[in-house]
Write a structure and sequence with these properties.
Elements (H helix, E strand, L loop, with lengths): L6 H33 L4 H31 L5
Helix pairs in contact: 1-2
Length: 79
């Protein structure tokens, strides 16, 4: 077994674990945002800006990992 045989497994892990991490992060972030906005409704607008910024960063990391994984899967640079 060489590196070419386990490449699909590595790509699947890269995309799958990135998706799981991103989903958990967005879920926890949304839950904490709702909790904090229920406690202090006057801070909702400033918190909402920060939540959208952090959701974009979390999704950006997943999209980059997906792009790199698909690049490895289609144009294998190790051949």
């Amino acid at each position: 077994m060489n590196g070419f045989d386990i490449l699909p497994l590595a790509v699947g892990h890269m995309i799958g674990l990135g998706a799981i991490g991103s989903c958990l992060g967005v879920g926890l972030l949304g839950a904490k945002y709702l909790e904090s906005s229920a406690r202090q409704p006057e801070l909702m607008e400033s918190l909402q800006n920060k939540v959208f910024l952090l959701v974009g960063v979390l999704d950006g990391a997943f999209i980059i990992a997906t792009g790199i994984g698909l690049w490895f899967a289609t144009a294998n640079p190790f051949r």
